[in-house]
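Quick one, T. Sequence first:
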Amino acid sequence: MRLVSLTALIVVLLDQISKFVVVQLLGLDHRLAIDVLPPYLNFRMAWNEGVNFGLLANSTQLTRWLLIAVALGISAWVWLWIRRDGHSWISRLCAGLLIGGAVGNVIDRLVYGAVADFLNMSCCGYRNPFSFNLADVAIFAGALGLVLFGSQKTP
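Structure tokens:
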């Protein structure tokens, strides 16, 4: 479980540090947009009160606390599931990514009332209208990894 815990801790720290630097120190919450390497990488401030792509965003406290409960419930379930003996190191790493990303976004909901999304990437003539954060990347990579490698057992 050390790998799961360490991975989750690193994800939470990287996510929260990146949000602090970009949102607070660079002032993205007031500037709303910073071109970093246009069009490939830009910072675009988006306060996400819902889930992916703003789904379920209706600005109610009930939704906020429901999403916090769901994220913590899924994280607890993954933690309990991965604790069982026999899971491969890659499964444990992916579980840590998912848990760390979920906790990073829960911290945002507790502190700001919404998730701070700021990464915006476009390419090849397509302008992406959505923003995301490092926690979202970790959640996606962890969930995909668990789907692909979750049934692998240690030899």
